[in-house]
Amino acid sequence: MGIKDTAEEWQVNATATPFVGNKTSVRTDEVVMPDGSTVTRDYQVHPGSVAVLALDGQGRVLVLSQYRHPVRQKLWEIPAGLLDVPGENPLHAAQRELYEEAHIKAEDWRVLTDVYTTPGGCDEAVRIFLAREISDVEGERFAVEHEELDMELDRVPLEELVRGVLAGELHNNCLVVGVLSLSAALAGDGLDALRPADAPWPARPFEA
């Protein structure tokens, strides 16, 4: 591969945390620039997330519609959730989210892609998994609350989702990245060439 992102850390002379929330916080760093000057950079500190693109045997993707207050829209998304425990295995977190949000399990898991959602203002890293050979989970559904009480579930053909993304009708970051990555993988080396589910993730190191 000709280009790839590389780890680098510029000198920080001072740091402060002016806001601490329930799940995230805001940090202010005084960063030394290449010319020796210093600037302040404010950014959200985030624990990281996982998302699951669950693909059924008919080429349909499991999606859910959920209200997102910051953008005042109900967005179609793929199952996703926070890495609540430091060092948590992202595959285990993804399996949990798929069960809790959709009452679904999967037999085949791959890493679809890893992204930073908004690296100019937040350190959130997301690992998007591809889950195949999916089936319903037996037993009672997980109890939902808050925005999830109004959640809708559907299965939509991949081609329809790609069309919706390119038409500007679907906007959720993980859904957009996930369906376009899946489309590219299908057109390229195939799904079996994707990284294994336990592939290293330097942005959020984890225990096996």
From TrEMBL:
Q: Which GO terms describe its biological process?
A: nucleoside phosphate metabolic process; ribose phosphate metabolic process
Q: Which domain of life is it from?
A: Bacteria
Instruction: Give the UniProt keywords, A-Z.
Output: Hydrolase
Instruction: Please give the start and end residues of each transmembrane region.
Output: none
Cited InterPro entries: NUDIX_hydrolase-like_dom_sf (IPR015797), NUDIX_hydrolase_dom (IPR000086)
GO cellular component, alphabetical, reads: cytosol
Q: Which GO terms describe its molecular function?
A: hydrolase activity
Q: Which residues form the Nudix hydrolase domain?
A: 44-178
Q: Which PANTHER family match?
A: ADP-RIBOSE PYROPHOSPHATASE, UDP/ADP-SUGAR PYROPHOSPHATASE
> What protein name applies here?
ADP-ribose pyrophosphatase
